[in-house]
Amino acid sequence: MLYGIIISLITLICFLLIIVVLLQPGQREGLSGGLAAGMAGGSAMGARRTADLLSKTTAILAALFLSLSVLANFAIDRGSANQSTIQQQGMENVNPSDFTIPSESQPAVPPQQQSQEQTQEEGSDQ
Asked: Whole-angstrom Cα distance, residue 108 to residue 56?
C-alpha cells in the first residue's frame, strides 16, 4: 500500500520535473550558451525572476525525487522471506546427509611413499 503511494508520487514528480526543465530558458553561460548568444546578437531575452523560480523548483523536485526513491527502497514489501528465491530453491534439493566431516573424507592427493634410498640421500646431503 505504502509502496504504491510512493511510486505514484515519484511518477507525478517525474512529470513535473520534465515540464519544469523544458520551461527553463537557455542561459548564456557555458560553452554552448556563449556560442549561441554570440550568433544571436548577444542579447538574451527573458525574465530573471522566472528563471530563478524555475531553477529553485527544479532543485526542490529533484530533492523530492531522490528522497522518495530511497524511501521506496525501504517500503518494498518483502514478506517473510529472508533469502532470495534462488537461495530458497537451492536449499530445497540439499540432503544434509550428503555433507561429511573433512576428517572422515578421503584425502584428495594420495600420500607419497619414499623409498629408503631417497631418505638416505636426503640424510647425507645435510
From this structure: 68
Tens-place pLDDT, residues 71-85: 998 888 776 666 677
Please choose, from the candidates 25, 117, 20, the residue with its C-alpha nearest in 3D space to the C-alpha of residue 60: 20
Q: Is the dihedral of CA 11, 15, 18, 24 positive or negative?
A: negative
Residue 86 makes CB contacts below 8 A (sequence gap 6+) with none
CA distances from 122 to 22, 47, 116, 118 (A): 85, 95, 10, 6
Length in residues, the chain = 126
* Contact status, residue 26 vs residue 36, Cβ threshold 8 Å: yes
Q: What is the pTM of this model?
A: 0.49
